[in-house]
Amino acid sequence: MKELNIENLHIAVDGQEIVRGLTLRVPRGEVHALMGPNGSGKSTLAKVLAGHPDYQVIAGKGLMDGENLLELEPDERARRGLFMAFQYPSEIPGVTIANFLRAAMQSRLPEGEELEATDYYAKLYEKIELLGMDRSFTSRAVNEGFSGGEKKRTEILQLAMLEPKYAVLDETDSGLDIDALKTVAHGVNSLRGPNLGILLITHYQRLLNYIVPDHVHVMVAGRIVRSGRKELALELEERGYDWAREGALESAYTR
Ligand code: ADP
Ligand code: MG
Question: Whole-angstrom Cα distance, residue 108 to residue 241?
Answer without folding.
Answer: 41
